[in-house]
Amino acid sequence: MFFDRPESGELAVLVHLNLSHGQEPEDPREFEELVLSAGGDPVAFITGKSISPNAKFFIGTGKLQELQAVVADNKAEVVIFNHTLSPSQERNLEKELQCRVLDRTGLILDIFAQRARTFEGKLQVELAQLRHMSTRLVRGWTHLERQKGGIGLRGPGETQLETDRRLLRNRITMIEQRLEKVRSQREQGRRSRQRSAIPTVSLVGYTNAGKSTLFNRITGSDVYAENQLFATLDPTMRRIDLADVGAVIMADTVGFISHLPHKLVEAFRATLEEAANSTLLLHVIDAAADERIRNIEQVELVLEEIGAAKLPQLKIYNKIDLLDAAEPRIDRDDAGKPIAVWLSAQTGVGAELLDQAVAELLGTEMIVAQLLLRPQDGRLRAALYEQQAIAEESFRDDGVGLVNLRVPKSDLLRILSALRIQFDDLVWAE
């Protein structure tokens, strides 16, 4: 019901008002990109100014008449507002325009429904859609105000609206229970990684900033990456090995957007918690975007909402290949700590600087020395090889191995603890 979408685009009239009060205005260019991402075919774009929204139609009566004429002339199938409409405003507009009316939240939900691929992703989208739909159930049932009676069926009955609400509540409860299982599984995985001291690095950022392209560049994966809004919806995780750091879990997350519907933040809590529990956030920024500063601010707002604002963060200014004079570089604070990296995930220019910056932020005290291993130290030798801590090995005539170690001290201590070996008992070459 929720995921079957027509192949062809729908003729759409877009409406954007500049309001002189209230929240920060939406970007009309981004709005058009959202409609195109949803498969819509914009045939007209109506703009205007208003002091405040009309309580009944959101737009004034004059603008409503203009909209009616445009819809009729273009035989539009849907009118999409770049704003949040109340359920009554949606119903009143549909009655006047005689076509479907969609607000910004409904539009983003539709895009998410198309992008969802995994079972968890589809559940999350359906949950958000059901919560959104629950406030808009009156439409479509005016002809069934109360179920019909008849011989053997008379009684107080239940209105069709009440039936739908009850079914929705049951479905929402069932989805929430399933997602709670997913959440507990993710929490179990996080605890396992914490026990093994493997840091998690999450890519976050505004939608279409290039997170998936960068993820593929870092991990050598082939995650779907496209120049469109919300190309990535389902989270992807890969284990990689970084020099001077060791094993790291890299996570690609869903892109953020201005005024991300709260229903989506709630529905995608299990996914977003992955970012909220990261060791380091890589905030990917489209360096070539005109609204770069605004996009950064919107991402910071969402990070605040999911409780990730205080995590260590490294800004990644991506797409420098689209800028004239930008060179790959690392920006540092007064203490010399990396705070930003300028690179191009598409061409790979500056990718080595990202590895260097992440290693500086995550790297702990490194042990670079030669360790003596006796024949009876086979379990330790195997564990060090598994951790890829041995750079080179040779043997003396008496059978003692000389291994050149390069490993974070924290990883070595974890290995020793698992084998119940004391650090002071190790024998180092002179």
From TrEMBL:
Q: Which residues form the signal peptide?
A: none
Q: What is this protein called?
A: GTPase HflX
Magnesium as a keyword? yes
Q: Which PROSITE patterns match?
A: G_HFLX (PS51705)
Function, as annotated: GTPase that associates with the 50S ribosomal subunit and may have a role during protein synthesis or ribosome biogenesis.
| Record domain Hflx-type G: where | 199-366
Q: Which organism is it from?
A: Cellvibrio zantedeschiae
Against Pfam families, the record matches this protein to: GTP-bdg_M, GTP-bdg_N, MMR_HSR1
